[in-house]
Amino acid sequence: MATTLAYLDESTASGWDRSLYAFLAEKQRRSGSDRTVLSYSRMLNDFFGRVGKTPDMITSQDAFAWAYGAGISGKQPSSVTIGARLACLSSYYRFLIRMKVVAANPCEALERPRVVPGQPKGLSGEQIHRLLEVIPSTLVGLRDRAIILTLTFTGRRRAEVLGMTAGSMEVAGETVFYSYRGKGGKTGKRELPRPAFEAIQAWLDCVGKDLATMPSTASLWPDTRNNRGITSGTFYTNLRRYLRMAGLPPGGVHIFRHSAAKLRRDAGESVEEVSRFLDHSNLATTTTYLRRLEGQEDRSWEKVAEAIGL
């Protein structure tokens, strides 16, 4: 597992190193997300590197000082960062307790900060049209247009779309299906809307590739310079430039998942349908998701205005 402890030599590693490696390996298997494992690995290595103690010597004060302390940049952490640090450390100690290596979790005595979620941003249909209009008809532009349409029509997360390969696609007559592995290891197979598929085909045609003959492991988004899959950083940089060109507020790739949910709700889909579309674990998550996106309508203000003579 390349995203965990690069320095670990199984023949010389201490028992604590091995326990950390085992924790990260379990986390990877359960979440299916290399990004989560890399984030946990960095945080735990930072914590134990700073305190200079083994896990059995850690106190609640050590955990508090690290979670609420300034990072490498010298800036004070946000409530989201503090919560993420405590969640990571607490998860590791729950693992150690299950393995009967330590007896207590130093994070249990600490209160988590109240996290105020940021307001999600979802683009309207008109805004997405404006965005697509400014993307140039170059090789890179055709690829990025296909990615944006796939994100918007499928509502999948960044890693799920950028990780798509030729083997992810299945053409069955007039219908095209795509397979994916989502958050928490969820897998699925769904129809790929025709506009997204046609954009993918147009892009592949321009680089001389055909889905029917591509190796199943070949990325749908080969970088035009090295033929490897495009990195999320490269696409994010391009997206920021397109948003500026279209006169739209800056945003990240996740904006298209928000947009997909909002557009489907606006098109008349029920909350239950949008929940299934997003692969949310429960309906409450989707309800909160949409409420924050849409705002709450006031259906009585006209009657109030009439009552007070306005």
Q: Explain this structure to me?
A:
- Helix 10 (255-266) runs antiparallel to helix 11.
- With 310 residues, this protein is mainly alpha-helical.
- It has 2 domains: 15-98, DNA polymerase, domain 1 (Orthogonal Bundle), CATH 1.10.150; 125-294, hpI Integrase, Chain A (Orthogonal Bundle).
- A 3-stranded antiparallel β-sheet has the order 1-2-3, with no helix packed on it.
- 52% of the residues lie in helices and 5% in strands.
- It is elongated.
Rg is 23 Å
Q: How large is the count of helical segments?
A: 13
CATH class of the largest domain: Mainly Alpha
Briefly note the CATH topology name of the largest domain. Answer: hpI Integrase, Chain A
Structural class comes to mainly alpha
Find the CATH superfamily of the largest domain: Intergrase catalytic core
General shape: elongated
Number of beta-strand segments:
3
CATH architecture of the largest domain: Orthogonal Bundle
Write a concise keyword list for the protein shown above:
13 helices; hpI Integrase, Chain A; mainly alpha; 310 residues; 3 strands; elongated; disordered N terminus
Short description:
The protein is 52% helix and 5% strand. It is mainly α.
Write the layout of secondary structure elements.
Layout: H1 15-31, H2 34-51, H3 60-68, H4 79-98, H5 125-134, H6 139-154, H7 158-162, E1 169-172, E2 175-181, E3 187-191, H8 194-206, H9 232-245, H10 255-266, H11 271-278, H12 283-294, H13 301-307
Antiparallel strand pairs: 1-2, 2-3
Helix pairs in contact: 1-2, 3-4, 6-8, 6-10, 10-11, 10-12, 11-12
